[in-house]
Amino acid sequence: MNSILVLDLWQRVDNSFAPISQKQLNFINKLDAISHNNQSNQSDSDRQTVVATDSDPLVPDFSHLYHVCIFDDWFESIETHFVNQYDSRFKKLLNYYSQCKQLLEDVNSCLTYLDQLRQQYLSVSNKTKTLHTSCEQLLQQQHGLIVAVETISQKLMYFNELQPISKKLSAPTMLVLNESLMPMLSRLDECIAYLESKKNYRESEVYLKQFQHLQSQALSTIRTHVIKTLEQTSQQVMPETKDALTPNDSVFTLFYGKFQTNAHRIKTLMQQIEERTQQSPLYSQYLSECHQCYFTARESLIGPVLSLAIDEMVASYQRNYCQLIRSSTNVVIHICQDEYQLFFQFFTQTTPLLNDFLNKNCQKLYNTLRPVVIHLEHLESLSEICYILKNEMIDENVINQSQELEPFIQSVERLLQDTQERLVYRSNIYIQSNIIDYTPCAGDLAYPEKLEMMKSIAQNLVDTKADETRSPADLHGMWYPTVRRTLVCLTKLYRSLDKSTFQGLSQEVLAACIESLDLAHNQITRRKGAPQVTEKVVDSQKAVDNKIKIKCEEFISHSTQLLISSLINLIELSKVLQKDNQLRSHQMFSSTENVKKAIAEVMDQLRANLAFVESRMALYLANRDTEIILFRPIKVKIQQNLSDLEKLIEKHYSETERQEIFLQKDNQLRSHQMFSSTENVKKAIAEVMDQLRANLAFVESRMALYLANRDTEIILFRPIKV
């Protein structure tokens, strides 16, 4: 029992004295079993009163244990026996115990050491974490310092560039064409831009001024090189004496071909400056100085040659003004084009100085040609010059949209305006002296004898069948002199002036022409009577619509009276008689015979005078289309009067009487060759339609050409349409 308790103490889980292995546990169990067996055997022997023999000292014999001392001896002997019997085993157990105790002490010592080690580990771990945290902080600080150093270095980099750049620019071996110059100039731009944006930095203003000074020094070096090169090139191509200055092709080849020898190197430098003109006004200033030097050099070369060339042309074409205009302007055009192309051999961007330079060259042309133009007196020369300047010089170049010729176009436009002013001035003088103040001679007023004589001559020269209805009046030589002069003047003005100026001046020309025609009309009337269609020669002229209308109406009324005056009188008489209801009582209308007789007289008058009217219209108008247009209202009036007569007869005569009268009228109508057959009528209608289609567009185009006013065209065409 005690062993089990001890074993329990040893085997407690929460606090064991000395944990034993399974083998040791089995051994203890065996000892416990032996102890129980011995106790059982001793009890049995006591109950059976077994007396041990002397040979067995272990058998208890209590008979002789009658004294305590004897018992003590016996017990001692027994104890000694047991001790001797179990001593080795017990010593082993003690030895085991000692070893276990020592093991326990070692284990406790180890635990102590482990605990110390754990404490030390925790301490080291804490220190390691602290060190790690400190290292991270130091790394962060180091990174921050590195960034700060890099930032400072980057910012100081612009400041530090001052000394190296200054040394390079000050070096005696520094050349404009050195490859390092352009990168250095770019670096200067970067430094200046940076310092201008960081004016709050210490000493930034000082460094900025020094960098700007270096920039100005570099640009001054480039400018000096460019100016020197241009001056040397100009001296090389400049003729040695003025006598050698001739406007021939070799001189121009020298001025352009050899002058651009160094163009590529200069253009490389100028391109660097032109790309930076938006960064600083300093670049624009130096670029402008280079431009001025360039144009000064070109002016010294081209100016004298151009002036000499134009002066030689003026001397060469003394009276051939048109050829002078063409030749001189072509020379200036070529110079403008060549100078424009040459400029872009040295530069990449245009400049207002280029236009100024081209304007100077064009101004030489203007200053030379203007005195020539303003002293011209002939309308034909002035008109031709206006046409050349407007169509050949201005319009063609405007269509081509040549930018290099804009100054030339401006100068030519000013010259054109001066020429047009001169043309208008000379036209006014021409109108006064040759139209208004014209005094006709006897031959000018010999109408219609003059026309009849020319018709007779023309009939001898051409086939009579082809020209039997034509008149020599279609030849300009047969027109009245002021009309011919007016048309010539208008022709010159129309192709030379703008629309508004032409319209105003044409009014004056036509008014003068009409005034001269009125004067001639009065003189012819006083001599022997004027033809009623005299004014028709200005049928399609602007601003004479009323005059034409009045004369046409007079001619239509006169011709109508000439052809059917008897019919008109008959109609007027019938209107008067109808008011009093006395129509049939009058002798003229009392019988069908009288009516038929009156109609016969009308037809005879019409046949007798129709050919005369047609011949007079052909004689004076000399234009079949105009004759047809003018004869149409006459025909309408005749038809209206015939229609009125027909209505009168239908109203006041019976069916039988009407048939008798109309039969006579129809017979008379069918007796005429024109109406004798349906084929003749169809043919006449076909001719009318063909003539209408063929000439309608022509009439409209001519009206538009001469009138140049849509409202006037509509007003004038309305009676034609009616």
TrEMBL record:
Residues 253-529 form the Conserved oligomeric Golgi complex subunit 3 C-terminal domain. It is found in: Golgi apparatus membrane. Residues 603-655 form a coiled coil. It holds the Pfam family COG3_N. Its main location: Golgi. One of its GO terms (cellular component) is Golgi transport complex. Residues 91-232 form the Conserved oligomeric Golgi complex subunit 3 N-terminal domain. This is Conserved oligomeric Golgi complex subunit 3. It comes from Medioppia subpectinata. The lineage of its organism: Eukaryota, Metazoa, Ecdysozoa, Arthropoda, Chelicerata.
